[in-house]
Write a structure and sequence with these properties.
The protein has 81 residues and is an alpha+beta fold. It has a domain of 55 residues: Orthogonal Bundle (Arc Repressor Mutant, subunit A), CATH 1.10.10.10. Helix content is 60%, strand content 14%. The chain has a three-stranded antiparallel β-sheet with strand order 1-3-2. A hairpin with a 2-residue loop joins strand 2 and strand 3.
Length: 81
């Protein structure tokens, strides 16, 4: 029988695998959603596993599309419902 730690690692791996099949834009939005809709840029960069040079253009496009807001180092998901 799997330990709780092994089950959690498998769950995280499955979510990561699922996320890698998403577009970078969708992955950023998904990670923000899964983390309460708000996080620091450095934390988001770490979770999406991208360099700032890759992440910043995506964030700029999401701001232009009205999907997120950036205030200083805080990225906030905009409720579009």
């Amino acid at each position: 029988m799997e330990s709780k730690k092994e089950m959690m690692q498998r769950f995280i791996w499955a979510k990561t695998l699922m996320a890698t099949s998403q577009s970078p834009h969708d992955r950023v939005l998904w990670i923000l959603t899964e983390n309460g809709g708000k996080m620091e840029r450095s934390q988001l960069r770490s979770k999406v596993a991208m360099r700032y040079s890759q992440l910043n253009p995506i964030l700029d496009e999401l701001v232009k599309d009205g999907r997120i807001r950036i205030s200083g180092e805080i990225i906030t998901l905009v409720n579009t419902a």
